[in-house]
Amino acid sequence: MTFDFHDLSIRELSRNYGRRRALSRVSLDCRAGEIVGLLGPNGAGKSTLLAIVSTLAAASSGEVLYGGHTAKHIGAVLRSRIGVLSHDLHLYSELSARENLVFFARLYGVIDSDARASEALRHALLFDRGTDLVSGFSRGMRQRLALERALLHKPRLLLLDEPFTGLDDASTIGLIDRLKSLRAAGCMVLLATHDLDTAEEVLDRAVVLRDGRLVGTEADVRGLRKRYQDRLHAAVTAP
Amino acid sequence: MRKAFPLLLGAAGLIFLTAPVVIARAPFESTMGLVQKIFYFHMPPAMLMLLSAFFCGVMSAIYLVKRRAQYDWIAHAAAELTVVFGAIAMVTGPLWARKAWGVWWVWDPRLTMSLLMWMIFVSYLLLRRYGGYGSETLAAGLAVFGMATSPFVYISVNIWRTIHPLTTVVPTLPVDFAVPLWYAFAGFLLLYISLLTLRVRLEEQRAAVDLLYLESEE
Amino acid sequence: MSAFWRVVWIVARKDLAIEARSRELINTTVFFALSCVIIFAVSFVRERALGDAAAGILWVVIAFSGTLALGRTFERERYADTLRALLLAPSARPAIYVGKLIGILGLLFTTEIIVVPLVALLFQARLFAYPVLMSALLIFGTIGFSCVGTLFAAMLARARSRDVLLPILLYPVTIPVMIASVRGTGALLDAAPQLDMARLWIMLLVSFDVVFLTLSLWTFEPVMTE
Questions:
Q1: Exposed, middle or buried: residue B88 (CB in 10 Å: 0-12, 13-18, 19+)?
Q2: Which residue among A77, B110, C21, C123 sits deepest, i.e. has the most Cβ atoms within 10 Å of its Cβ?
Q3: Conformation bin of residue A161: beta by default, left when phi > 0, alpha when psi is -120 to 50
Q4: Residue B211, Cβ neighbours under 10 Å: how many?
Q5: Taking CB atoms and an 8 Å cutoff, what residues of chain A touch B217?
Q6: Which pLDDT band, with edges at 50, 70 and 90, does B43 fall under?
Q7: Which chain B residues contact residue C155 at CB under 8 A?
Q8: Which letter does DSSP use for residue C129 in this model?
């Protein structure tokens, strides 16, 4: 049973945790072949939004439509088209790089899991470290491996939560290139970050969240850092 | 519900004020005498505790499906009241048992089941207090499991006790006792409903304040 | 349906692979169980044989070791939040629960193989007199404890204070399992062994297992959704 979708529609999404409002009536649309940024300070609700879109969390109200259908309507097969890379990386440090990839490939229903794992190791530039345990890898190496893990099942929607944190320049450039080639291949990328310089390089457009609400959209990301800082500065010094 | 609240509380208060008269007028039980009258303060809370536990379980199950905050507030309030009414029952119970039958506690099916339900809902409150983020969902799951295990507790202690029968037996009530009992039950029930309403309203107000606070920032 | 069992097997095999490499859980759980037995032996043994108490001690040790094993199994999934990655798999989420449950059962059964003879020895309890019934008690009792335990441990994997909250939540709910298992074992150890009573307790355990396994499968997804 295969399923695919080419647009994502987030409508009036809200989420409360007890008394805390993590998200408040957020709406957003994305299409295949786009990289959309979620910007905002810590606690703005970016991670919560990604969690709901990835089906890990439930919304208190509002809905997310994948090609016009809700997650409940589509069922578990929706997750075969979604890939997630969070700052926790989701890798078993007691297993080797290859074992991690083969496990997740099988779990996500990839048919030729060994071949796909080899291909992923090559993309991550870790082919000769395939049998080494992940516990011995640096942050950058784990990040590359984790990204390939998220892409094993060739998802349509890729959700990234602070992917540039702790990366050196070379790894950052590598990640940016990978994202651009994914965009060219028709992937839809939703990327949460507060690294504005890098964001300018890779995003098509962005939305800004604060205290769970959508406070702005950026259709043109050039000069993003300056405008964003001005906006924050204004908010802090306003009477 | 807002308008009804003072009325409920008033009615409950009235019943509690007049209850001593009704209870004093009730006949004395043959073997226990005056001591038996604590029963009117023991049985209604005990019954309400079990009903409240069941109610919390049902609200929790609905919350797990629908995820609307109101169900969570009601479940939380019901759990708190389960613990409170349970505490009343478990203090008055041993006091009565000691005087009437000479023991503080027996492991009979009903008592054991009540004790376990009380403990499960104390752990519900501990989970909500110390579990951190997302503990509403986890506590809802616990309440459902707690509800599901209570018949098993009853049955297993029942089987256990048929091998070692108890020497004490809780008497069945003749009609004369029924009137003051239901009177006391009505009083406690009204108290329960008013406390539940008050507690849920507290959560509503808190949520409203948070919303106002957020909106004032715009 | 076979997709469900495929995922179960993949998850269970992964746990087995990790465990086979380090043997951390099995070593520490077994040794903890041994320490518990020794503490009880030192505290309870008198000149005359204890008989019935051996049943209680055996199951208390299983409950304590089980609680530790459950916590540690999910601690592994918490480290890089791999639990979320498992939940993102395009399969029915309860399959992950069953995969984890099988791992826990393997761990506990292995521990019991070592602990049961030790208890029999130290407390002079004839635990091997009726091996079929004793095995049935061990199997269905452990399943009952583990099916609720796996759900609660998964639920608490990302919660605060999870180490102490797991036993606080788990023990009251699994009291029927303890009662049935201890009483059933006691019935076998009695001077006049009551095989029919033991069979009755086994039936109660089986019905508990069926009910709570079903309940866990139903509630796993709602409870694990944040």
A1: middle
A2: C123
A3: beta
A4: 14
A5: 211
A6: confident
A7: 138, 141
A8: S
CB A167 within 8 A of CB A140: yes
Give the residue among C91, C87, C86, C108 at the shortest CA–CA distance from A92.
C86
Q: Looking up tokens 């997630």, which residue turns up?
A: A84
Please name the chains neighbouring B, where neighbouring means 3+ C-beta pairs under 8 angstroms. A, C
Which of B14, B40, B16 is CA-nearest to residue B26?
Answer: B40
pLDDT at B103 over 50: yes
Q: How far apart are CA B199 and CA A112, in angstroms?
A: 57
Task: Report the greatest alpha carbon distance in chain C.
Answer: 60
**What global pTM score does this model have?**
0.89
Q: Give kind and range of the element (H or E) at residue C24.
A: helix C24-44
> Taking Cα atoms as reference points, which of C170, C196, C172 lies closest to residue C184?
C196
Q: Which residues pair with A26 in a beta bridge?
A: A13
Which residues of chain B lie closer than 8 angstroms to A20, CB-CB?
210
Q: Rounded to a whole number, what is the distance in angstroms from the first to the last CA of chain B?
A: 32
Question: How far is residue A23 from each of residues A28, A42, A211, B209, B214, measured CA to CA in Å?
Answer: 13, 13, 7, 17, 12
Query: In this complex, do B141 and C219 lie within 8 Å of one another by their Cβ atoms?
Result: yes
Give the mean model confidence (pLDDT) for residues A65-90. 90
| Chain C contact set for B119 (CB, 8 A) | 172
Using an 8 Å CB-CB cutoff, list chain A residues near B65: none
Segment among A19-33, B13-27, C87-101 with least mean pLDDT: B13-27
CB count within 10 Å of CB B105 equals 13
Cα(B188)–Cα(B182) distance, rounded to whole angstroms? 10
Q: Which residues contact B211 (CB under 8 A, 6 or more apart)?
A: A21
Find the length of chain B: 218
> Mind listing the pLDDT tens digit for each residue in B156-190?
888 888 765 554 445 455 555 677 778 888 888 88
Compare CB distances from B145 to C173, C180, C201 and report the shortest one's residue.
C173
How many interchain CB pairs under 8 A, A with B?
24
* Cβ <8 Å between B141 and C175: no
Residues in chain A: 239
Q: Residues C184-212: what's their mean pLDDT?
A: 91
Label each residue of chain A as H, E or C. Answer: CCCCCCEEEEEEEEEEECCEEEEEEEEEEEECCEEEEEECCCCCCHHHHHHHHCCCCCCCEEEEEECCECHHHHCHHHHHHEEEECCCCCCCCCCEHHHHHHHHHHHCCCCCHHHHHHHHHHHCCCHHHCCCEHHHCCHHHHHHHHHHHHHCCCCCEEEEECCCCCCCHHHHHHHHHHHHHHHHCCCEEEEECCCHHHHHHHCCEEEEEECCEEEEEECCCCCHHHHHHHHHHHHHHCC
Q: Which of B47, B42, B52 is nearest to B147 (CA)?
A: B52
User: Which of A92, A99, A106 minimises the CB distance to C82?
Assistant: A92
Indicate the residue of C160, C208, C219 with minimum beta-carbon distance to B130.
Answer: C160
Pairwise pLDDT comparison (A239 vs A188), residue with the higher score: A188
Residue whose C-alpha is closest to residue A51's, from C84, C191, B124: C84
Query: What is the average pLDDT across B142-152?
Result: 94
Query: By CA distance, what is C23's nearest residue in A?
Result: A94
Q: What ipTM is given for this predicted complex? A: 0.89
